[in-house]
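User: Before I run my own analysis I want an independent prediction to cross-check against. Here's the chain; please return only the structure tokens and, at the end, one sentence I can use as a sanity check.
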Amino acid sequence: MQTSSAYSAGPVQLQPIAKGRAWGGTTFASWNKFAAPAPGELAIGESWEVADLPESIANGCSRVAAGNGVGKSLHELIDLDTPGWMGRARLTAQGRFPLLVKFLDAAEHLSVQVHPDEIYAAANPSAHLKTESWFVLAAKPGATIWRGVKEHVTKQEFETRLRGGGSILDLLVQVRVQAGDCIDLPSGLCHALGQGITVAEIQTPSDTTFRVFDWNRNDPSRLLHLDEAMACIQFGKSQRLDHLPIHNAATAPAVQTRLFRTTLLSRTNHYTIERIEAMQPTTLEVITHQRPVCWLVLGGSVGVNGQTPVTAKTWETLVFPSIAEGLTATLGLATTFLKITLPDPMDRFIA
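Assistant: Structure tokens:
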């Protein structure tokens, strides 16, 4: 590994990766993020903002659009100076950046699905743990998600209904959502994103999804994975739904000063999500706590000084290396962003 602090002296903006999906919509075109798909092409359902997946995943690694190392992949950039980029945080066991960050535009329902937990992933090397959180950016009136199996439903009852071709929707917990909601989805929890919802998705770096039900799309490219799903889905109290409240950015407890309002939305073993709102144009010192940090800009603009100044506007993302501590960010009028922080491995030793 070559060490070059020039490649980790400041934040980078990554080129978003467009992913066509059967359920995609037109939001990203309205954001001027991607051109509208050509006739016959799938609508864009996902914009991968921060990605460092293995080469086996097509178009699965972000490239630098602005900042130091333009044109390099995120993986190459970190490899040039792993200590400077990662600090106290750790790469995955596969040597990859430990976050996958996306925007999702659901014009139609996503499949009912589940992701592997640690036990399944350990026994099946081709599968990778996937815990995720959704921050709702927009939702049509009455929009819903499905999160978890109703507590009284047994695994046998669920599987009998599923394999018999009957509807399982009445066995799932359906929840209405609105803009500002943050929803945690630990691995093993059966779930689906409903139509008419746009979210920011923060997750562990995995593309392993087991489909349970796909709304009768009958698309040969979207196979169901019933055996794998049934080996992963949690039931009853093991889902711990009562420990997974949905926090809304407008009503959750926040720390507010004259200049900023900071709301903690989610804290998992894999990442922490905060929403930071500037009450007026101002500056903010970048604090990394010796770990890389992601900022998803949801409104306004952010400019950061450093060896190579970088600016991000609404719907753009900045990734700060751990050694970016102390840089100054200039926040424009009505700037709001999600700050995503990785855990410190030492936290587990601190009582």
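Sanity check: The two ends are 36 Å apart (CA to CA).
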